[in-house]
Amino acid sequence: MLVSWNRLIRFAATDGRVLRGEPILPNPNFDLGQTNEKTELQAKVVIGDDLYDTTGKTRVSDEIVTVRKLLGPLGQGDVDIIRCVGLNYAKHIREAGRSPPPFPFIFFKPNTCIHDFGADVIVPKIAQDNQADYEGELVLVLGKDAKDVKLEDALDYVAAYTAGNDISSRKLQRDPKLAGGVPQWGFSKGFDTFAPLGPALVRPDLIGDYKDLLLQTIAWEQV
C-alpha cells in the first residue's frame, strides 16, 4: 500500500506545535536520528487524521516548519498492539542457550511500551539490578486490518518500516525464582517505555527488499 508521504516524522516545531510531517532532507545521507534544534531540519506538515489513508484525504501540505525536537513517529494512541517475533536472530538464540524454534515465537507488548525516539527509558525499580537489556529490531507498521491473508499478499498490508528497541528485564524473563518454570515474556518486556520507535516511518517503496537492509544496534559506541 502507498500512503501519501514518503517519510513521516512526529516532532515539536519551533512555533510550539506538535506535528507530523514529511522531512525535507538537506542531503540524501542526512541521518534523521541526529535531528535536534541546531540542525534546523525543515518538514512539510502532514494534514489528515488517518496516517495510512490512500484516498488523498491525508496529504502532505505546502506548509513548511522547522523541527525543534524529534519525537517518536507514533504515539501510544496510534498503536493498538505490538506483535513481536522472538528468537528471530541466530546469534541471539545461541546467546540465550536455545534452539531455533520450528515456528515463529510470537509475544505481545502493550501500547504503553511505545516511547519517543531518543527519550530516556524508565526502568522500574524491580529491574534496576543490571538486568535491563536492549534489542534493535526492524518494525513493520501495518496500515490496514489483516486477517486470513495469503503469504504472497502479506507485504501489501505494510504501510511503513521503522526501527525499534525491544527492551527486556532478563532476570524477570529467565530466572526460575522470578519467572517460574518457563521463560516469562509478557511481564518482563511489557513495562512502560520498553518499546522506543523511530526516528521515522519510511514507505516500503523507498526501502525496496527489506531483506537487504543492514540493521545495526549501537550501545556505548559498540556495534
From TrEMBL:
<feature type="domain" description="Fumarylacetoacetase-like C-terminal">
    <location>
        <begin position="82"/>
        <end position="217"/>
    </location>
</feature>
<dbReference type="Pfam" id="PF01557">
    <property type="entry name" value="FAA_hydrolase"/>
</dbReference>
<dbReference type="GO" id="GO:0046872">
    <property type="term" value="F:metal ion binding"/>
</dbReference>
<keyword id="KW-0479">Metal-binding</keyword>
<comment type="similarity">
    <text>Belongs to the FAH family.</text>
</comment>
<dbReference type="InterPro" id="IPR036663">
    <property type="entry name" value="Fumarylacetoacetase_C_sf"/>
</dbReference>
<dbReference type="InterPro" id="IPR011234">
    <property type="entry name" value="Fumarylacetoacetase-like_C"/>
</dbReference>
<dbReference type="GO" id="GO:0003824">
    <property type="term" value="F:catalytic activity"/>
</dbReference>
<protein>
    <recommendedName>
        <fullName>Fumarylacetoacetase-like C-terminal domain-containing protein</fullName>
    </recommendedName>
</protein>
